Amino acid sequence: MAHHASPLWWGRPGDQARGTGTRREATVARGERDSRRRREARLGRPVGGRAAGAGPAVGGVVLLLPDGEPESVRRPSPLAYAAALPMGRSLARAGREHGLVVHAVHYRFRGWNGTDAQPAVDAARVADEVLQRYGDVPVCLVGHGIGGRAALHAAGHAAVNSVLALAPWLPEDDMAAAPEPVKQLVGRQVLIVHGTNDARTDPELSYRLAERAKKTNRDTCRFEVHTDGNALRQHHGEVQALAADFVLGALFTRPYARPVADALAAPPPLGLRMPLAAGFGRSLRR
């Protein structure tokens, strides 16, 4: 499975092949110079238009972790940042009365970059900034693609109480490499959502990770969005409703909808291959 195929905005096919050696060398040199400049991960402005001091006191924070690339020292893609905002706005609306604030994270670099795991490091640094700004409030990490993997890795931060990983990008099984860590998920509420027709990130890899995580953390579940792809566009309404139900339940102890509660309680494989029903957002019954 081509779990790290390039998204459409990374350039037109053939551009690299048409470039001359000089142009490629210049591109690499610019990337190396850019990577040496000091950058800092930072907290973006609140998503959803919440003004300082407006509404109820802040009771919880969502950090949106955008997608990226496996290897790159370029600046993060503004398109990947923009792609995370619809989910952020949906969560901000759903949690406004509870004092939920949503921020998107600005990474230092576009790439995961091997053992550097830079988006995960950035997520933890920005979680520190959340504590400085809002005090001791619970944080939910919500990431897509490489951002999903970053959310899972950064879950061990003391402020994080929950993780929502959408179509997480995970490495293929490699006997020579250490397996993806799961100990940091203990004590956190964890939800993974993956489209069964995802041709960019392998849904079977997220199932295997969830299976391992479930052995040490009962509060792990995974939903499958049948026939949907990496962007989860086909059933975006149901995915947003599922995300809102999970985030509000994890951050504010609101009762989960029955499907989410059942998925958390069910043993593998049932609770890790829970189908996301059509019309989820319109048919919640508690």
How is the topology of this model organized?
Elements: H1 15-18, H2 21-36, E1 42-46, E2 60-65, H3 78-95, E3 100-106, H4 118-134, E4 139-144, H5 146-153, E5 160-166, E6 189-195, H6 203-216, E7 220-225, H7 236-252, H8 258-265, E8 274-275
Parallel strand pairs: 2-3, 2-4, 4-5, 5-6, 6-7, 7-8
Antiparallel strand pairs: 1-3
Describe, in plain words, how this protein is organized in 3D.
The protein is of the alpha/beta class and 286 residues long. The protein is built from eight helices and eight strands, in the order ααββαβαβαββαβααβ. Strands 1-3-2-4-5-6-7-8 form an eight-stranded mixed beta sheet, with helices on both faces. The protein is globular, with a radius of gyration of 19 Å.
Strand content: 15-25%
Distance between the termini: 38 Å
Helix content: 25-40%
Q: Characterize the main sheet.
A: 8 strands, mixed
Structural class: alpha/beta
Number of helices: 8
What is the element string, with H for helices and E for strands?
HHEEHEHEHEEHEHHE
Categorize the overall geometry: globular
- Please state the CA-atom Rg, rounded to the nearest Å: 19 Å
- The overall pLDDT average reads 87
Number of strands: 8
Low-confidence stretches: 1-20
Instruction: Output the strand order for the largest sheet.
Output: 1-3-2-4-5-6-7-8
